Structure formats: C-alpha cells, structure tokens
Amino acid sequence: MKDRHHYARNIGDLKQQLKSAVDVDALRDLHRVRPARHFVVVARLVGLVLLCGWALWQTRWPWLWVPAALLQGFNILGTVILLHEQVHEAIFRRSRPRLNRLLGLLYAMPSGISATQFRTWHLDHHQELGSNRDDPKRAHLSPKKNTRLVKLLYWTPALFLIYARGSRDEAATYPDSEQRIIRRERLGNVAFHLALIAGLLAAGGGWVLRVHVIPLFLMFPMAFSLNRLGQHYDIDPDDPAAWSTLVNGNPLWHFVFLWSNFHLEHHYYPRVPFYNLTALNERLQPFFRERGMRNRTYREILWGWFVLNRKPHSNWRQTR
Questions:
Q1: Which domain holds residue 166?
Q2: b vs e for 221-240, b when ≥16 Cβ sit within 10 Å of the residue's Cβ?
Q3: I need a labelling partner for 251 at 20 to 30 A (CA). Which of 144, 171, 203, 290 fits?
C-alpha cells in the first residue's frame, strides 16, 4: 500500500517561499494557456518529423542520414513532452475532455507508450517525489546498480525492456478497469507501428531500418536518457526545493527538449505551459541564488554520471 502524497508532506514551507519569489500577477500570467501557441509547437514538430523522414528516405545525400536520425530521436521525445502537456491539461483554456483525450492518444503513438499509464505514472511521480518506493520513476526507471555498464543500457534499445518491465509492475497496482484500457492502448500503438512498417516495406524494404528502426530504437533512447539525467539525479535530498536539478539550458536545448530542461520549475508549478517555462526560470533566478542552487549544464551532468559515476538522486557536490 502506498503512503500517498510524500512530496506535500515533506516540503515544509516551500510553497510560501515560492509565493514570495514570484508575485501573484506574474504567476497568473505565467499560467495563461494559449492553445494557438501549443499547436504552433505541434506544427513545428510535425514539420521536423516529415523533414527528417524525407532526409532518411532519400539516397542522394547519405551524409544526412545520421543527423536526421538523431534529430528524429529528439522529435519522438518531443511527442512524449506534448503528452506531458496533455496530462497537466495545459493545452486548452477550458475543459475539453474528449479532445484532450484524443490528443493524448495521438501524442503517445510515436513512442508506443500508453497514454493512460503515462498519466497515472506521471501524476504519481509528482505526488510521491522524493520517495524511493512510491515515486514510479525512481522505483522503476532509476538504475539499481551504480555501474557505468548498467547506466549505458538505458541509452540502448534495452530502455524499452526496462520501461516495459517497470510499467508492467506499476500497472499491476492499478484497478482492473484501468489495466484493460492500458492493454488496449498498447495494442493500438503496436498496430500503428506495424502498419507504418508495412507501408515502408511496400514502398521499399531498405527504408524501414533508416526511417523507422534506427530513430526509434537507437536515437530515441539516447534523447530520452539525456533528458532524464537533467531531472532528478543531481539533487539535494535534504532540501525539497532542490529535489530536481536546475538546468537553465540554452536556446538549442530549449528547442530540442521543448523546454523540458526546466523540470525543477515544472515541479514547482506543474500547470505552467511549457512555452512559459523560460520566463518562469528567469523569475526564479533570485530564489535559486538565495538557496545556493547551482545551474547544471548537460556536459557537467554527463561527466558526473558516467566519468565520476555519481549515484542517482544524490548530491553530486558532496559525493566522492
């Protein structure tokens, strides 16, 4: 039995401190949802998917294949981030349950995950942040052995097996009705990918590997794992304000990660749309400085993770 709401019970007066850091009017503006802005991002992502697909399909310029496959891996991650926005209902100003549900199913298809499980999984992650047992991300997706070989597996197709096992174990705790929905969604996603593969085979068998298999099974795990490294691995377990990693990023990371590098800010204010997270990050800089919270670059995170072999969910500045 889960001991619910670990995060709320352990953050102390963090909410009050954040109220002092961002004034009410600014916070109201940061929470303003602009559907057109969301769908501009969707259109941009769809355009990139099609462009990368063409670059992987064509044979005149083979030098495009590797960068296009890598970018396509980030594009697939982008659909997961869009699904994340759907979970937090940060797409429409008013409640639109049917359309929101449809978008969730569509956003889940490219990566093959269940939209329903992602919703439950992710909301549990917010409620149970800081718990080794009840936060499903930490319980099922964090390496249990702090070895470089195990860490590298997450950057390979083994990620799908790790996630499948973790999602299976977590889903077993859900009501039977929810488990049935999850199974149907997974079957629907499998059917989608099989249909895509069949279409590519009909058009020319050699394209399947370049257009579908390599971006999804080789490049997406790398994009996913790098993104996750910047979330909750280098933290201060003694300070709930620093239970996520501060990653200011730069325009390139904001672009390929759809602002999801601002994961710390997202946990403070989950309903702020992703296109407003840069402004939220800027507003919170004085708060970060007062708390002694240090920005991390992805280069520093990778160095700490693989070279220094730091443990997940620990204070890397104190780890030796």
A1: 6-307
A2: bbbbbbbbbbbbbbbbeeeb
A3: 290
**Is residue 1 situated within a structural domain?**
no
Quickly state the pLDDT bin for 203 (edges 50, 70, 90).
confident
Computed over its alpha carbons, how large is the radius of gyration of the chain?
20
pTM here? 0.95
The residues, any chain, with a CB within 8 Å of residue 5's CB and separated by 6 or more, are: 127, 128
Average pLDDT, the chain: 95
Name the token pair of 309.
């072999």
Beta partners for residue 314, in sequence order? 234
Instruction: Provide mean pLDDT across the span 51-76.
Output: 96
In a domain, 320, yes or no: no
Q: Could you write out the DSSP letters of every residue in 50-107?
A: HHHHHHHH-SS-GGGHHHHHHHHHHHHHHHHHHHHHHHTT-S-SS--HHHHHHHHHHH
Q: Does residue 197 form part of some domain?
A: yes
Task: Name the residue among 43, 38, 77 with its Cα closest to residue 257.
Answer: 77
Q: Cβ atoms within 10 A of the Cβ of 155, count?
A: 16
CB atoms within 10 A of CB 218: 15
88, 199, 258, 308 from 100: Cα distances, Å: 10, 28, 19, 43
Residue 260 CA to residue 281 CA, distance in Å, equals 12
Total domain count, the chain: 1
The CA-atom distances, in angstroms, between 65 and each of 41, 147, 185, 206, 214 are 24, 32, 31, 13, 10
Name the one residue in this structure whose structure tokens are 């697909």: 53
- Is residue 121 within 8 A of residue 170, CB to CB? The reply is yes
